[in-house]
Amino acid sequence: LNYLFRRNGFNVTKPDSLLGWTGFFHHNSYQHYDMNSVGDKKVVLIYGDSFTMCVDSTLCFQEILNADRAFSENHYMLNYGVGGYGTDQISILIENSVGLYEKPLVIVGMLTTDMDRSMLKVREFSKPFFKTIGDSLVLRGTPIIQNSEIYFKENPPEIHSYLWNRFRSSDFYPFPHDDKEAEAEYIKDCKNLNEQILDRIVAELEGRNLDFMFLLFHAGSHDVLDWRLAFLRRFCRERAIPYFSDLDTILADTLGLHYGSSKYVIPGDGHPTTYANRLVSEKIKTAVLNGTDVFIKGDNVEEEEKDILLKYEIMRIQSDSSWLSLVQKKAVKRGITLDSMLVLDAIYLLSLKE
Predict the structure, then answer these.
(1) Residues 144, 12: contact at Cβ < 8 Å?
(2) Whole-angstrom Cα distance, residue 231 to residue 252?
(3) CB count in 10 Å sphere of residue 5
(4) Per-state percent for the chain, helix, strand, coil, to nearest 5
(5) ∠ CA 297-317-270 to the nearest 5 degrees?
(6) Is 338 helix (H, G, I), strand (E, B) or coil?
(7) How many CB atoms lie within 10 A of CB 301?
(8) What's the pTM?
(9) Is 2 helix (H, G, I), strand (E, B) or coil?
């Protein structure tokens, strides 16, 4: 439907044979358009999807950091983010571009829903994808040689009626939906596939003896308890990979605004604002100048996750003036501080979600 009704934005006429569509780099060679600007500085490569690539209305990480005096004195960032990429395409791009640079520091940007994209054989356009065969990953869907028009003509969707499919998946459908078993199976398969793809990325970077870290982006449409973010956190922690999440930077922000506000997320768009990108850029700058190990926080993964979720619930209460007023009254009635009452209410809210 995106292709049919938004053809100008989704019509890939000259696809890259390996990746399908590309970003700020050349087809086939995968050299970045801004490669010659690096000079004798140490290159910092950042990969990912549109959250890494950034939208046109915002300042992006490379713009912020390459203009920062402390960062740019000895470093230069090249942005390899591409809108719509999943973990599969990110992995393939890393393998085919990271060797172009001498000992780069690599940042692997990962939006939680990139995991779901790796389960797809097609998105807005034909894409490469991995299949698990035994304990191995096998690349499928390449070479990509057809343009959008030819591809969709020869590979039409299996849905026979868009209207009927929409009705069947809506709340108006009279027959009950019991998709819990199917959802559990999907989550299991998604975790299994993405774990292998992420391990492939790690093996590539470790095999080249490169310093690297993961940057986890949380989709605002998902709850902070969503299984995807928890999976990605645990993946990094179990392998001692330095990482941080954009959600962590927002929770630590002194403005005390809740995640999802227009200060951090573009309304109706979902992508981070320039302000949010600046917060993330500061964390990247810290890692580059002081070493990526600053983001390994200890061994107790569960306690760290609980602390993050607790702060998130407190922030939600603080961002709602009516809600906060009720909590203040409860604190006075109980004879305790407002901070203590906020923690108690946040703990209660978390217990309801378990």
Answers:
(1) no
(2) 22
(3) 8
(4) 50, 15, 40
(5) 70
(6) helix
(7) 15
(8) 0.84
(9) helix
